[in-house]
Amino acid sequence: MLEQELISLAAPTLAGIKPGSLFSMQISSDDLTHLRTQLPGLRLVVLAQAQKELLYLFRPEQLSLILHRPEVQRFLLPLGYTSFTIGAALHHLRTRLAHASGFPHEIGIFLGYPLEDVQGFIQHHGQNCLLSGCWKVYAHVEAAQRTFAAYHTCRQQFLQRYAEGAPLYQLIVQAHPDDTQPPANAPQHQHSTGSSHGSSHMETPDTRRKTAPNESLRKRVPDNDRSVPIPARIHPPQCSPDTRPAGASRRLYSTPRRP
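User: That's the sequence. What structure does it adopt?
Assistant: Structure tokens below.
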């Protein structure tokens, strides 16, 4: 079903441990509208259209913090990004996608890629990485391994909760966890119906290493910004903690694959 498919593709973004997820999906305009009503606090936009829509689910607050980091702006400026509001940046990204044969490398910034890994991928032409899993890693290997495990555990737990009857909107970690009101037109404890949907999963989980599900989630957003707190109490099952050694990068991302 549509909502289950979205959870499988974007659970870390729903959980707030990833700023954005990119995936392709065959979806009608009505189903797209329905999904948007079930995603309070998140945005779901179409970046490109072909046989399937290229969809980008993201958390605006986290993306805005990433786009306003000086080092990120220095990287994006030569690529034609002259404004770093979310709307302007996504508009330019759409333009570059429309004129590119593949994915522009900077798309990783919108997914929370560490800048050093984006630059490493460009410098080495995708070769000579230290680790390949959800993305190609050129720095902080142990941190990346923990991130892979966090994404995998999070996806499993969210799918289990959904199968047990939790509606999609209740699985989303909110900036204000005390606000438990369902979104407008939200169905009560029922799964989305609709036609079958073809999809291409653009984030490959690394299943080589699993994180204990009972470990507590560190109360920080482990993306490119290190100052944004996560609510201490969250409704969905907790994903793996940030247990990286002091000084290690806390940035997360995953790599889109070609549709």
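Residues 2-200 form one domain.
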